[in-house]
């Protein structure tokens, strides 16, 4: 027999004979690997078939058998028939094209990958090939710089025609391989998976440079996910104005590890939190407290809110002396909460305000939106309504916290400044009279002013009397400095005589009697 290998030239003189004695390479599944690998095979030559990892051919051995096919008019022709060997060693005719069949199928639609586990569902497509199967998980590659991922021991024997295999206690953001094989060394399935990201750990080191006022922290490694940024929250309390609270939220890029603290003068207390960000969200916060004098163990000044005046329980109102928060000419919000403590102030200041809801009290609500450019006295509780706010009447027996709030936003930052007012509405409480509400210094100044005005008025009246006629009178002489007790007026004919009572009498003046 003539054996022609793939790629060899067949001489013309032998082509007729070779055509009669050989079979052409079958046009089956392109994934099939034939051994020997030829373009033509001899009659009854056995060929071994194989497939890529995880697949198995319909038949592992085939051979071609040439048979005569009689055609009309006495002519005959050869026909190629391929036979396949079954598991019992019997040769049967291949009814369909031979192909690579997936031995073990893993449904990608049911694949579950989390930050700490991998779970897959499998089913056997070739029952006789699915005995003695073993599945296992392994760390597929080195960990990220600065991270140490431990090797996992995830092995399980698989039984039956279908089931579930899980790998647990895995490291986030790490590559693992899952292999299902038939003992001893036949791989039926192999997959490479990367566990999902999770939130990062908190930054371990956080410090303040006193010379620059800049806050710094150590960059986080990408152990639990790619660090895409940092979330920085700064709460500042001023020692000069203890009713003032400033909150600043910043989103910084993953390459930034320092940021200056806002300047608020000596004695300012800062509470700073830094969180790392991955695609899964923000991680735990590193918290530190600082003061502008360089100490990192401050005693933050307690909040001391400003007071209200003219509180009226019957009308449900109170007057707040408001001053614009620099810079002026910005929209201010006036928020009200029916509670008072330092936690309330910070919580109300930082949260997104809500419209008034009577059923939700004592929750915080928006009482007014003000374009405040100069100081003003604002009547809280007068019932005014507007778009998104309601200046609701105050309730007797309640303690209130009111916040004048200014928000400034940019693409990467939000700055919220609040000034707090606190007061209580006592049942029966009404505004006091003006004088009783004055301070001692103010009251004394008012009394002195009134006395001075009274004395001045008396002097004016007194001088007008002294300047009036008649010319000859005891009053006139008295106004000119003569004691009234030493004067005596008498009538002599048509004359009026005024003389002293001393002895001898002294004539002061005389004139016509009027």
TrEMBL record:
UniProt key word Repeat: yes
Keyword terms of this UniProt record: Disulfide bond, Repeat
This protein's name: Uncharacterized protein
Keyword Disulfide bond (UniProt): yes
SUPFAM superfamilies: Fibronectin type III
Tree of life domain: Eukaryota
Signal peptide: none
């Amino acid at each position: 027999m003539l054996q022609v290998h793939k790629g060899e030239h067949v001489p013309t003189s032998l082509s007729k004979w070779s055509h009669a004695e050989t079979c052409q390479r079958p046009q089956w599944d392109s994934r099939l690997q034939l051994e020997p690998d030829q373009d033509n095979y001899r009659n009854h030559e056995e060929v071994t078939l194989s497939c890529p990892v995880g697949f198995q051919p319909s038949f592992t051995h085939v051979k071609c058998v040439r048979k005569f096919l009689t055609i009309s008019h006495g002519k005959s022709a050869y026909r190629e028939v391929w036979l396949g060997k079954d598991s019992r060693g019997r040769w049967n005719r291949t009814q369909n094209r031979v192909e690579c069949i997936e031995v073990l199928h893993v449904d990608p639609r049911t694949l579950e990958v989390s930050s700490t586990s991998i779970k897959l569902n499998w089913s056997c497509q070739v029952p006789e090939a699915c005995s003695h199967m073993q599945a296992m998980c392994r760390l597929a590659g080195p960990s990220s710089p600065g991270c140490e991922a431990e090797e996992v021991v995830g092995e399980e024997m698989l039984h039956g025609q279908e089931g579930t295999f899980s790998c647990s206690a895995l490291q986030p953001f790490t590559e693992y391989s899952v292999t299902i094989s038939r003992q001893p060394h036949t791989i039926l399935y192999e997959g490479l998976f990367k566990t999902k990201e999770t939130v990062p750990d908190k930054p371990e080191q956080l410090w303040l440079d006193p010379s620059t006022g800049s806050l710094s922290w150590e960059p986080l490694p990408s152990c639990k996910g790619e660090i895409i940024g940092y979330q920085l929250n700064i709460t500042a309390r001023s020692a000069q104005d203890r009713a003032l609270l400033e909150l600043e939220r910043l989103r910084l890029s993953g390459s930034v590890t320092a940021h200056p603290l806002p300047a608020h003068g000596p004695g300012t207390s800062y509470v700073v939190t830094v969180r790392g960000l991955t695609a899964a969200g923000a991680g735990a916060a590193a918290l530190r407290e600082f003061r502008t004098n360089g100490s990192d163990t401050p005693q933050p000044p307690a909040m001391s809110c400003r007071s209200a005046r003219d509180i009226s329980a019957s009308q449900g109102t109170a007057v707040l002396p408001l001053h614009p928060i620099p810079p002026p000419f910005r929209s201010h919000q006036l928020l009200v909460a029916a509670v008072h403590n330092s936690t309330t102030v910070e919580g109300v200041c930082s949260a997104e305000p809500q419209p008034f809801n009577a059923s939700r009290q004592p929750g915080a609500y928006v009482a007014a939106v003000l374009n405040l450019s100069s100081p003003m006295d604002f009547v809280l509780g007068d019932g005014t309504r507007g778009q998104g706010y309601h200046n609701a009447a105050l309730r007797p027996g309640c303690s209130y916290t009111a916040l004048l709030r200014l928000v400034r936003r940019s693409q990467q930052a939000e700055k919220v400044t609040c000034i707090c007012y606190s007061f209580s509405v006592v049942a029966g409480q009404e505004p006091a009279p003006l004088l009783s509400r004055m301070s001692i210094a103010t009251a004394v100044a008012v009394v002195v002013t009134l006395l001075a005005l009274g004395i001045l008025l008396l002097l004016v009246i007194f001088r007008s009397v002294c300047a009036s006629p008649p010319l000859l009178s005891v009053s006139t002489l008295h106004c000119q400095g003569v004691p009234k007790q030493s004067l005596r007026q008498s009538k002599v004919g048509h004359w009026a005589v005024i003389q002293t009572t001393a002895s001898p009498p002294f004539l002061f003046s005389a004139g016509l009697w009027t």
